[in-house]
Amino acid sequence: xxxxxxxxxxxxxxxxxxxxxxxxxxxxxxxxxxxxxxxxxxxxxxxxxxxxxxxxxxxxxxxxxxxxxxxxxxxxxxxxxxxxxxxxxxxxxxxxxxxxxxxxxxxxxxxxxxxxxxxxxxxxxxxxxxxxxxxxxxxxxxxxxxxxxxxxxxxxxxxxxxxxxxxxxxxxxxxxxxxxxxxxxxxxxxxxxxxxxxxxxxxxxxxxxxxxxxxxxxxxxxxxxxxxxxxxxxxxxxxxxxxxxxxxxxxxxxx
Length: 255
Ligand SMILES: NC(=O)c1ccc[n+]([C@@H]2O[C@H](COP(=O)([O-])OP(=O)(O)OC[C@H]3O[C@@H](n4cnc5c(N)ncnc54)[C@H](O)[C@@H]3O)[C@@H](O)[C@H]2O)c1
Known about the structure:
Strands 3-2-1-4-5-6-7 form a seven-stranded parallel β-sheet, with helices on both faces. It has helices at 22-33, 45-53, 70-83, 108-136, 149-152, 159-179, 197-200, 205-212, 224-234; strands at 13-17, 37-42, 61-64, 89-92, 140-145, 184-191, 245-248. It has one domain (13-248): 3-Layer(aba) Sandwich (Rossmann fold). Helix 4 runs parallel beside helix 6. By secondary structure, the chain is an alpha/beta fold. Bound molecules: nicotinamide-adenine-dinucleotide (NAD). Nicotinamide-adenine-dinucleotide binds next to helix 1 and helix 7.
């Protein structure tokens, strides 16, 4: 048998949230190239259609959904189960950052908006997917996305976002304990700075330089620098890794 990074993913069903985002689209493309079947979900139906049409292989589906809506999450899980032939992995990338450089400007709406999508929707989607995986009895993989902010407290007006990402690390560890006995691994990927709309929107140039100066490799990651790690975590090679926070920051953090 040929050794591949994505060993075990051929024909498997993978849900990718935030799929039209910078990292999400690279992750969707990587899974498709590894032979998996992708359910790509995000807010913009037209962008999803373009993404899915361009993926390698067949059997991919696009589902436009606002993950803050409970019914959307349940529908997503049902469609993945029925149309992908089961759910092997969930990759939960959907998130927002509202940069407020002065803490005094943070409103309750800013707090709620970031917690609702980044943390609350992630928990309930992970739980719905976990229940479907347990029912199917074949184990599975859940991969969440935290950020260097979980460790640093966040740069460039992202304190509230950082709180949600700290929550993601704790949540992923808790889920890893709960789901381990069912053969479901749960790990979190922690990017440093990645060249996507999230990092380029409303970014103060001085704060940006201060952050990039802290990267020993000297440059931002490209989205493809994250997708290989995600495919690895979903593959057979990672079957004994759970509860981990995988640091992919060009050395910005060292742990
Ligand atoms: N870009 C970075 O430097 C960086 C650094 C650390 C962590 N991350 C994390 O990586 C993940 C992907 O980030 P990215 O850089 O690709 O961001 P991005 O902004 O390009 O993509 C995020 C996607 O989430 C979607 N989304 C937002 N709200 C949603 C909702 N209510 N329902 C459904 N989808 C919704 C957006 O439409 C968008 O396509 C995020 O969890 C982010 O926190 C990114």
